[in-house]
Amino acid sequence: MEFELSGEIHLGGMKVQNKQQSDDISSMDKPQTGYVYLYSSFPELNRCKIGITKNYQRRFQELKNQAPCKTHILDCVESNNYKEDERRLHQMFQHRRKHGEWFEFDSEDQALGLFREYFRVREIYEQKLNVLKDEIVRLKIKLEQEKDKNNIIKVLKDQIDDLEIELDCEKEGNKLLEEIVDRQNKLLAYHQIEYPSSGWSDPRFMYCLKKYTISMIQFDRVISRSMKKLGIF
């Protein structure tokens, strides 16, 4: 029984020829890393096995011990999602399945070409997917920034509305005060009343004082309503 490691093992972009360099790459077997391999055996060269392993050296030795004839590894690819890659490959070649993980191809070259084409397309897909993920993150950040801007605009608008209400109240109060002062001046001028030197018994003065008091009460009510609108009390 003979075991061959023909073909190439792809590890993180590097290609390792045959098992003479296996000692140099053994340290690259990380716990989170798995491998997808394409395995063939003689004399049925058109039968290939697609499997996975966490430790490709140990797995290849097991295949060597189990195989009843000459065997070899066509390819082995490092993958951070090796179980999913195996599942997809099995699904792709479902119509070629003979039993278990064994699939029938027209030739080893065809099996190897399709196997490598899958990983080539997957790499392109993942690159595009990463670009889309980055764009989604960028758009989310932009959306949050726009939300912040909208919140600031809303706060400023509310403050402007409050100031406009306050300004209207001030205008209303000033207008009423001017009317009251003008009314009192007209009353005093019409009746030709001056501050009484003889006391508060002058009925004309008392009439004007009453009118002035009523006007001031009205003014105080206007001011109170304005302050309530502003939430001062």
From TrEMBL:
Note the superkingdom of the native organism.
Bacteria
Which keywords does this chain's UniProt record carry? Answer: Coiled coil
Q: Quote any Pfam family the record assigns.
A: MUG113
Domain annotation Bacteriophage T5 Orf172 DNA-binding: ranges: 42-117
- The coiled-coil segments of this chain are 122-180
This protein's name = Bacteriophage T5 Orf172 DNA-binding domain-containing protein
